[in-house]
Design goal:
Elements: H1 2-10, H2 36-55, E1 60-66, H3 73-82, E2 87-89, H4 103-114, E3 116-122, H5 147-161, E4 167-171, H6 175-178, H7 184-201
Parallel strand pairs: 1-3, 1-4, 2-3
């Protein structure tokens, strides 16, 4: 928008096309952003590893932090695709630790039932509970508190206070997921968007 406004101010006839980009898939009015499918597909392998780690010990807990500053699309889709996740925590739903409906009690019930638990949390979840982090990153986004480390410490402390011996393995794949090659579907999607962007930016052929 700023580039378009500046061009208009200068009286230049230049076409500007914006292509929605974020693997979080959290752009309003956009059904799917490129990289989203590749991201949650890669996250499924990470969740599988967390489950293996969780089942390798009695009362084992696998905790995975995935992308999603403002939405839980990657976390939720990866959990649905894997079928191994017992609890998904996302920014859209407030998180409660204590009480009968809280995270601690739920994890206890899962451990009682099956002996292990796999948790997936989106990076933007529970920011009201995580210590504030001032400032912004180089992209201008507000810096988030690390909800993954926060949960690892609080869950470990809770079960220590309950005198229950749990083994928690925390996985933060972050750039390992961001850097994967695009899936075939994402590759075709990007090709179509690029082609349409070029045609949209090209001026109409003048009629004689």
């Amino acid at each position: 928008m700023q580039i378009g406004a500046e061009l208009e101010k200068r009286g230049l006839k230049v076409g500007v096309v914006g292509v929605p980009k974020t693997i979080d898939n959290d752009i309003h009015f956009i059904y799917r952003s490129f990289g989203f499918e590749s991201a949650y597909a890669a996250a499924v392998d990470v969740i599988s590893a967390a489950r293996v780690e969780a089942t390798g010990a009695r009362d084992g807990i696998g905790l995975v932090k995935l992308m999603g500053r403002h939405s839980g699309f990657v976390a939720c889709n990866a959990a649905l695709a894997s079928t191994d996740v017992d609890l998904v925590l996302i920014p859209e739903v407030p998180m409660q630790l204590e009480g009968e409906q809280g995270v601690f009690r739920y994890v206890e019930r899962v451990l009682d039932r099956q002996g292990h638990c796999v948790i997936v949390v989106a990076e933007g979840a529970a920011q009201d509970l995580v210590a504030d982090s001032a400032g912004a990153d180089k992209s201008g986004n507000a810096k988030l508190g690390d909800v993954g480390v926060f949960l690892r410490e609080r869950i470990t402390r809770h079960f220590r206070d309950e005198a229950r011996d749990v083994t928690l393995k925390y996985i933060d794949p972050s750039y390992a997921i961001r850097s994967v090659a695009a899936s075939p579907s994402d590759s075709v999607y990007c090709w179509n968007m690029a082609r349409n962007a070029v045609h949209a930016a090209m001026p109409a052929t003048p009629r004689s």
